[in-house]
Amino acid sequence: MKRKLFILFYALLAIGAIAWLATKSMQMLAAKEERQKHVQSLPAFKFMSVDEHQLALSALAGESALVLVAFNSACDHCQYEAKSISGIIDSYPDTQFIFLSEEPLDTIRHFQSTYFPVASSNITFGQTSIVDLHETFGSLSYPNIFIYGKDGKLLKEFKGETKPEAIEVYLK
Question: What is the value of pTM for the model shown?
C-alpha cells in the first residue's frame, strides 16, 4: 500500500512538473511572438543621445530608412561591425544609422570617436537600458542589426557579425 502511494505521489509530482514547464514554455513563446510582432514596425522607442538629449527612433527615421545597431564596445564582433558600417555610411546619406548600447555615455562616446571620428548628420549614438532593449526588441546578441524601410517596416534583422554587403542589399 505504501509503495503504491509512493509511486502515485511521484507520478503526480512528475505530471505537475511537466504541466508547469509546458505552461511556462507556452508563455515564453507567446511573449517572444508578441515582441516579434512589435518590432515589425519601427517601435516607439526612446533613448539618451551621447549629447544627453532624449531622442525617439520615430523622430530620427522621418522619411528615410533606418539601421539600428545594438552593440557593446568590448565586443570584437561589434568593433568589426562598426568598421564595416563606417566604410559604407557615406554611400547612404539618406539612411539614419543609430547605434545603441547600455554602457555608460563616456564609453559610448569613446567607441563613437574610435570608429566614426568624423561627425555625420546620419549617425546617432545613444544609451538605453538593457531592460528597455530586451522588452522592446527581445533577446539580442551583439551586434544585433535591425533595418527598417522608409515606411517604418522591418526589412531585415541580423543577429551577430554581418558583412556590409548583406546590409547594403536592404538599403538600395
Answer: 0.78
The residue ranges of every structural domain in the chain are: 1-38, 46-169
Per-residue pLDDT of the chain (172 residues; tens, 9 = 90+): 778 887 888 788 888 888 888 888 777 676 666 666 666 788 888 999 999 999 888 777 777 899 999 999 999 999 999 999 999 999 999 999 999 999 999 999 999 999 998 888 889 999 999 888 888 888 888 999 999 998 889 999 999 999 999 999 998 8
| Domain 46-169: assigned CATH number | 3.40.30.10
78 Cβ partners below 8 Å, 6+ apart?
Answer: 69, 71, 72, 142, 143
* Pairing between β-strand 46-49 and β-strand 54-56 as defined by DSSP bridges: antiparallel
